[in-house]
Amino acid sequence: MLGKIAKWMQSKELTAGKDELELDPNLIPEHVAIIMDGNGRWAKKRGLPRVAGHRAGMKAVKEVTRAANDLGIKVLTLYAFSTENWKRPKDEVDYLMKLPQEYILTELDELIEQNVQVRMLGNPEQLPSFTVEAVLEAKERTKLNTGLILNFALNYGSRDEIVQAIQQLAGDVKCGQVDIEEISEEIFNRYLYTNGLPDPDLLIRTSGEVRLSNFMLWQLAYAEMYFSEVYWPDFSKRELWKAIYNYQHRNRRYGAV
Ligand code: FPP
Question: Does the beta carbon of 35 lie inside 6 Å of ligand 1?
């Protein structure tokens, strides 16, 4: 069934035509979240090692960030490393851990110039200190910017996030800071990594896979989902525009008629 939905979405996507897509500036999603998938297959197709796919994926991050900022998207959340990705070969994990630092070293000046704010969501505890320090430095140096919030999900797992939120909330109940009766969705939101951010309006997953992989399970409750066949390293500004074009032709009802 989901495969059929993905195919139907592809055909809808094609109706956007080959020329410049016309996007409605009043219907730009506030928060776009992306599961960047297909780096390994992109590399395999070219006879390259998997890490070459991740390197190429970093280029796509640059292009999509710029395009999102230019469109006036407020938040772009990118799933860069999940709590399950530790199961990959050590060489690949080591490589992935170096990418945020490299990205920040080469891109920070431009991100500052573009008025982008860098943030992170996920558990920093198991991450190498150089990865966390690079992200924290970028966060600090961009904290007064007012443009796109570029949120890297690193060592992020939605179930892990929910469990840590419950632990903290239970602690606050125990010490009398929160009454059980006053717990609401709004209060619960404050304990999540995404505290203060709007929920994603649009979730994009690349590479033809149609699943959530433990990504923002709470926050995606009413997101529109868009599945692209394109491998992440080939996901371009135009692919982002196609996803938004598709989003703009959905009918969001939030459970109403
Ligand atoms: C999934 O593709 C991709 C990842 C687990 C890593 C994503 C990371 C990047 C795109 C680079 C991040 C860049 C910065 C700046 C942090 P996969 O390897 O599972 O692909 P496959 O399913 O084809 O094997």
Answer: no
56 lines ligand 1 (CB under 6 A): no
Q: What is the pTM of this model?
A: 0.92
Distance in angstroms (rounded) separating the CA atoms of residues 5 and 210: 9
Catalytic position from the list 37, 151, 155, 246: 37
- Closest C-alpha to 252, from 201, 193, 210: 201
Pairing status of strand 149-156 against strand 117-121: parallel
**Which domains are seen in the chain, by residue range?**
29-246 (3.40.1180.10)
61 pocket-lining for ligand 1 (C-beta < 6 Å)? yes
Adjacent-strand bridge partners of 117: 149
Q: Is 84 annotated as a binding residue?
A: yes
Helix (H, G, I), strand (E, B) or coil at 64: helix
**pLDDT per position as a tens digit, 2-21:** 455 445 444 444 444 455 68
Predicted confidence (pLDDT) per residue in 19-54, tens digit: 568 999 999 999 999 999 999 999 999 999 999 999
